[in-house]
Amino acid sequence: MTLDLFEKFDPILNDYNSLPEGAENPFTVSMEKVLSPTTAIINGRETILAGTNNYMGMTFNAECMAAAQKALTDFGTGTTGSRVLNGTYNSHKQLEETLKEFYDCQHAIVFSTGYQANLGVISTLAGPKDYVVIDTDSHASIYDGCAMGNATVVRFKHNDPDNLDKRLNRIRRDDPEAGILVVLEGVYSMLGDQAPLKELTRISKNHNAYVLVDEAHSIGVFGETGRGVAQEQDVEDQIDFIIGTFSKSVGTIGGYCVSNHPKFEALRLVCRPYIFTASLPPSVVASATKALELIASTNLRSKLLDNSMRLNKGLCDVGFNMGTTGESPIAAIVIDDQNTAIAFWGEMIKEGVYVNLALPPATPNRMNLMRCSLSAAHSFAQIDFMLEKFTLVGKRLGILQDKVARIQNLA
Amino acid sequence: MTQNVDEIFERICTLLKPFNKKDIAIGKDTAFSIDLELDSLTVMDMLSEIEDEFDITIPLNMLPDLETVGQFTDAVHKLLSE
After folding, report:
1. What is chain B's percent helix, strand, coil content, to nearest 5?
2. Is B66 helix (H, G, I), strand (E, B) or coil?
3. What is the CATH number of the domain that holds A84?
């Protein structure tokens, strides 16, 4: 008898089928109408969006929308082709020029998504004789870039300089000539923690390794002109490649890689995820270009981090077990039991707050998280509304009461 | 200095103790996923500890071929002999 190709998915399907049905199912939620960067209609109810990675609130920016609408009218809905065939318009080149200015660097290549930027750059740069060294908590696109390439892949313990040093030592001992690419993230998305780039880049350079930093969650959010954590930690001159996305702070979709390597443009000829896909639609290119200009010229970073600190501090004060500290735009409550986390999500959506339910294996250390990503567009009133609802649901599900009871028992 | 396979197996068994939640008897046929019920993330954590214990590089690329303790032992033996 032939094997059912789908049999291997039975365990995950069983888990999925045990989820609550209807409005309380976190994986089937959809937005009926989006009213602003921070509000939408979900299940017929006006809902505060507290988990959209829309850090700058750029999705409804009037200038970005006007630029996108003009491009749509002038150039149509899509390019229908690859960057290396018919898919390069002047605006794609202009966007790459804007990125070069934004990062003050010599080369920039735009990809159709951030996922493809990691997939393409990592799989292409590191060949069969090379090594890619990645952090344990790396995003799926980094793992997939490794899986797609032919390099030897080595992992080091999350944000641990000594652990990285040990691994680079061994690689160099066994293979003094090898090309090595160390892949880091400026901000790790689940708990919002920054990489200690100063130490990690110093160690990498000691072993003659190239350094790539993914600033997907940090562009716009950190650094004096919003370039990210490398700028914030003043190590930009030590970084060989910066990868980023337009799908968070920039408010649309697309990815990019910037570099000062003199041969960087060669990637356009050899990088398959760049070549074998259609380029970004003109309207997306136009709004991304405008948004980058706005990020460089306006400072919404302090407002964003104030918002995050207010929520993080508030949640911590009422007694939630927090995985975050408020130093990034992420606020994540750690919930011990997975079914309680799923129920928590369902109660929050009924109360009119959309957050992310993040479960293993997408989370570090097998945590169940109620994850919020704050926006500079959130008002303090909205943050306080979130806090009120989190507290209400936390008590309803016995999470907060447990804590109080524990303290009373100790006394 | 090449270690013999049995010594390597013993050292791996010692490293596996904290991962052996059900305290089953470990042999060379013991499979990480089925017998020890370890998920892929735990296997990767364990791999990291084995790297440090033997001071070797075990590429992530090898992981799909390492399903049992015996296969792991042979891989470590091979890497130490190179």
Report:
1. 60, 0, 40
2. coil
3. 3.40.640.10
CATH code at B5-81: 1.10.1200.10
Is any Cβ of chain A less than 8 angstroms from the Cβ of B44? yes
Residue A346 and residue A245 share a domain: no
Kindly give the confidence (pLDDT) of every residue in chain A, 411 residues in length, as a single tens digit, with 9 standing for 90 and above.
788 999 999 989 998 998 888 888 998 999 999 999 999 999 999 999 999 999 999 999 999 999 999 999 999 999 999 999 999 999 999 999 999 999 999 999 999 999 999 999 999 999 999 999 999 999 999 999 999 999 999 999 999 999 999 999 999 999 999 999 999 999 999 999 999 999 999 999 999 999 999 999 999 999 999 999 999 999 999 999 999 999 999 999 999 999 999 999 999 999 999 999 999 999 999 999 999 999 999 989 999 999 999 999 999 999 999 999 999 999 999 999 999 999 999 999 999 999 999 998 889 988 999 999 999 999 999 999 999 999 999 999 999 965 556 566 555
Q: A267 and A348: one domain?
A: no
Of B52, B55, B57, the CB nearest to A154: B57
Confirm whether A189 is a catalytic residue: yes
Q: Look at the pTM and tell me if it is higher than 0.90.
A: yes
End position of a domain, from candidates A297, A323, A350? A297
Q: Smallest CA–CA separation between A158 and chain B, in Å? A: 11
Burial of A147-164, coded b for 16+ CB within 10 Å and e otherwise, reads eebebbbbbbbbbebebb
β pairing state of A180-185 and A210-214:
parallel
Give the HSE-up count for residue A300: Cα atoms under 13 Å, Cβ half-sphere: 24
How many domains is chain A partitioned into structurally? 2
Which residue in A112, A189, A204, A375 is the catalytic one? Answer: A189
Domain that holds residue A402: 7-56+300-410
